[in-house]
Amino acid sequence: MLGILALAGLLPYSTQPSIAEPVTASTGLEARPPASKIVRSSLRAAGSTVVLVALYYLLPLDTSVTWFAITMLVIGLGALVALVIFQVWRIIRSPFPGLRAIAALATSIPLFLLLFAAVYVVLDTDSAGNFSQHLTRTDALYFTVTVFSTVGFGDITATTETARLVVTVQMIADLIVIGVGIKVIVGAVTRGRQQRPADASQDSPTGSAARAGISSAAGDAARQGEHEPGT
Question: Please, are residues 186 and 87 in contact by the beta-carbon 8 Å criterion?
Fold first, then answer.
């Protein structure tokens, strides 16, 4: 829990820079996000999840067939990869990369889970023998979460080769999401925090004054050289 809060920059002031303190190379952390920024980010993440869940329950999945499920899975995973790439780019450019990363995870993981749940609904509709019992949409979502969390209660199981193949794909994708996807996002946070000190120093009044002083000194030296005899 502390790791997630540190990632988002939400730890108490004793362990985080103050809101007025710019990002520095010595701290390696962004300033604590304003409360309004945290609230807006939380509302956006919650809103995205609500919209995804609503689409999951409203889309006409009960009339689909297996080939549509496989196509939907491939397209959905491709869209998820594109979304993660876009989110990594946003994290690196964000003034609060930790907060942006939490919002990215809050959108990507529900999309990933709902995608596989929708596929399981389609498979169960196409053939009642694909699973050990009939799956409602809530059942399919429950089964997807148990596979993702590696709990595996055993009350719902895949009973055909097609269903087991899709479940195997989810297991592999789970490992990729947990082992690679989160690592990529955390790496983007680190890179974003490393870039902010350089940007802050270039844009700060102290940095501007220093550059102006160097330019002025160089100009004075050049003019002095022009007025010296024999030059």
Answer: no
pLDDT single digits (tens) 37-49: 888 888 988 999 9
**Token code pair at residue 33:** 């996000």
pLDDT in tens, 191-226: 777 776 555 445 444 444 445 554 555 555 556 555
Cα angle for residues 126, 131, 116 (degrees, 5° grid): 75
Residues 6+ apart with CB under 8 A from 170: 116, 144, 147, 148
196 falls within a domain: yes
Question: Does the residue 29 lie in any domain?
Answer: no
Q: What is the CATH number of the domain that holds 69?
A: 1.10.287
pTM over 0.85: no
Query: What is the distance between the alpha carbons of residues 68 and 182, in angstroms, rounded to a whole number?
Result: 29
